[in-house]
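Pilot study result, target chain (572 residues):
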Amino acid sequence: MKLELSLHASKLKNVAGAFKGTSDPFAVVTRIATTKGAKPKVLGKTEVTKNTLNPQWVKIFEIDHELGSPVKLAVSIYDEVRKSDNKFMGSAVFDIDELLGARGNTKAKQLKTQGTLFATVRKAKGSGLLRIKMRGIKLKNVEGWIGKSDPFFELSRKTDTAGDLTWDNVFRSEIVKNNLNPDWQPATVELSKLCGGDLDAHIKISVFDYESKGGHVAMGSFETTVNGLIEGSQTKHEFTLTQKGKNVGSILFVQASVSGVSQDISERLSKAAIVEEPNTGDYNFVDYVSGGCELNVMIAIDFTGSNGDPGTPGTLHYLHREEPMVRNDYEKAIAAIVSILSKYDSDQMYPVVGFGANYGGYVRHCFQCGPDAEVRGVEGVLEAYHNTFSSGMTMSGPTVFTEVIETAAKRAKQSALKASERKAQAYTILLILTDGAVSDPSATAEAVRRVDDAPLSIVIVGVGNADFTSMQFLDDNHRAGQRDLIQFVEFNKHSHNSVELTSETLKEVPNQVVGHFKSRSIAPLPAVKAVDDEIMVEPEEEEIDLALDIKDDEIVITGGGDCWVDGFNALR
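Predicted structure:
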């Protein structure tokens, strides 16, 4: 998944010094190394915003992300100091999964130094580049009686957040001093950031008079499309700038061209417009979670006798009660996988069930673990798992998934129905942890086919050294036209690295989510809007161990930047 990250901050600490005005903040984004052997990487820096402690940075950062592979970004803010060292203003770390799962895909962090840093992610759309060369003609002077304006321009995209249309800046030009007929340098902008690859989407060109103390003065603006710019450059059309309804000059595009576009987007959109049913072809996982789709999780644990005596060291269910920092493989898998999925579930309440245990002479293939129907978070899941061993059960057999699968499908449909009643969306992920192959693969495969219509993914993790060949059969056995909703992973193949386990386990979930909704022509809901005042600001953190050497032409990491993710010991 390709994502775009944007940043802004409020009420930063002024570090300019006495009698030196207000700080000129810029931000540097670094992708932290989350696995051993990986290296941190600087993704770039924003533009400098002059004389403000409430910067709204225009620069957008593109991030590659896959569910199950943690991405952590360090954002370091500095006050630009010319001919001297930049002054540090604060830093925070953002987790991409947490951003995607947050309301409006936005999180806020209180800086230890002072102020609040906001980060937002959204889906990157489209491909290709727009190249433009702009010239202003007879712009109205807003400088006053003395001097002339210092114009620069911005390009903005229109964003629809829950029906509220706003303009997001994506590019800012250089400043042309004392000139009402500015001839700006050629500019190149990614179409994905400007218009989502849609050459007929509305964009806005705004011109401002630069003020060294901030508070740049608007000189006029106009709306058009990328196709409009291209046509205007070919016909030498002058676009009229308006400010408060009055003409205040014009803009001529000496050049406007696109490259790297794989097909005629306008033609594709015109064809798509005649389709009566909802077009879900261009939607992806990010669209659904941005619209507030909740990912519910249900956990099912194998309590068959083949796991061994849980009181004997070395068996799969042995609990290291005298060594609280040691977890068995069931605990490790639960901690690693649920800790990631929990970021997409606002209430983090999970049903935990077991199968394969004998209660009062009767083998049960789907029973509640612990005293509560649902438990909170990873800690609650682990506690429910632990409590099962004192519930009076005897580990038995055979290994049967069918009842668990049918129960999960029923819950998934009920959750989706309740969500639809409040005009929301929901999808369920069933995590099955087992030490052996199912006793009847054919019956299990048939059960999976019966629940194909449910908003459900089934993730199976094989624990121990059993022969899991038939489990792979379940993963691969889906008929033509049927959704592939099962993913099977052997824990031992990834027991050395939690990120490898979660990446392999969850990699198919995004496509399964989209596949379910797409098969029913269900489009994602409009992206949820996040207003700064409504976002819960997370408490300040210790400054990350990251040292940067910031030069004019490059940024070098001179130390730190490591924050290894050990999901097996999550929430210790």
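One observation from the pilot: Confidence is low (pLDDT under 50) at residues 262-280. A full batch analysis is planned for the follow-on phase.
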